[in-house]
Design goal:
single chain; mainly alpha; Growth Hormone, Chain: A; transmembrane helix; MFS_trans_sf; transmembrane transporter activity
Length: 331
């Protein structure tokens, strides 16, 4: 890709993260399809509600993967962390597509659970370290949109296709993303952190070009890492304590905590998994429940698109506080 512009190369890197986000979103609504089809007479696998609930709850394993991510990323780099997380997630889809018993389906859910937050984290880190600042915000938001799009695709395909065919379809974005990722350079920030300054410069130029703004950022990044390398262990500890007291560290951390609290506290994941069952219990009509489930998927996608527009026109704090207040009012 040496003949392409820096913009094209950055979008190439971002495209792989977006493709993985589509597949990740599909895994969130996939348990709902399993609920629907395993309780019907259209599949060879039949099970009870308790086992299906266990399958849906495997998303909770994402906490384990997320805990290990900082260490893994620092050891092997961003590129191979992205590839490894994507392979784990792909294994989950392959197991689901090949499953002939409930144990294999449960195992596929375990792989999805372990790798889902890993993918979410490495996607954000990849965009923040490998793309120019002016593109980062929009592409980070688009990750949520792509994830919701994956949920919509699985919800709609579940009406006409069986769960194993859906698993094969949702494997495709990850396979394409993996091929793309192998042609990336490593993150310049990570290479500089490891003291590989020449490689960091080559990777940075490949991604960002050699314009004045990019050169300033490159020099600042390398200078900062050279300074860190010159520090003693005692100085590093003192600097770490000082960094933890800085407002520009703990305030973004607080915002991220509130964002995650919003995401999980609003009940979107639980709602999406159990929507059809809740509507069917309330109405007693499977057709109405199915229609309601599909409508819910489009409402989620519409909400994601609206959030993209709101952040463009309003202050981030305003949007966040409004969303948080709306969730509290609905409780």
């Amino acid at each position: 890709m040496t003949n392409f512009s820096p913009f094209a190369k950055q979008m190439y890197v971002a495209s792989a993260t977006q493709l993985v986000a589509v597949s990740l979103g599909g895994s969130l609504s996939y348990p709902s399809i399993l609920f629907q089809q395993f309780q019907s007479n259209e599949t060879t696998i039949h099970t009870d509600l308790d086992t299906l609930t266990w399958i849906a709850s495997m998303h909770g394993l994402s906490g384990l993967g997320a805990t290990l991510m900082p260490t893994i990323m620092q050891l092997i780099g961003r590129k191979y962390t992205f590839i490894g997380s994507s392979i784990l997630f792909l294994i989950g889809w392959i197991l689901a597509a090949a499953a002939t018993d409930i144990f294999t389906v449960l195992l596929s859910a375990v792989f999805h659970g372990l790798s889902s937050n890993c993918i979410s984290i490495i996607n954000l880190v990849t965009i923040s370290e490998m793309l120019a600042p002016k593109y980062r915000s929009a592409l980070m938001i688009s990750l949520i949109i792509e994830q919701t799009l994956g949920q919509v695709i699985v919800a709609n395909l579940g009406v006409i296709l069986d769960w194993q065919t859906e698993a094969m379809i949702m494997s495709a974005p990850i396979i394409v993303a993996l091929f793309m990722a192998f042609s990336w350079p490593e993150s310049p920030s990570w290479l500089a952190f490891k003291g590989k300054f020449e490689e960091a410069e080559k990777a940075f130029v490949w991604l960002r070009g050699t314009d004045e703004e990019a050169n300033k950022e490159l020099k600042a990044m390398i200078a900062a890492q050279r300074e860190v390398k010159r520090q003693t262990k005692k100085m590093k500890l003192q600097n770490m304590v000082q960094e933890m007291k800085r407002r520009d560290l703990y305030m973004p951390s607080l915002y991220m905590f509130l964002l995650l609290l919003n995401f999980y506290g609003c009940g979107a994941i639980s709602l999406f998994i159990y929507t059809k069952d809740v509507i069917e219990i309330g109405t007693g009509n499977p057709k109405i429940a199915l229609t309601g489930y599909i409508i819910t998927s489009y409402i989620l996608l519409t909400g994601s698109l609206i959030s993209f527009v709101l952040i463009k026109f309003f202050n981030t704090k305003t949007v966040l506080s409004t969303a948080f207040g709306s969730i509290l009012c609905l409780l």
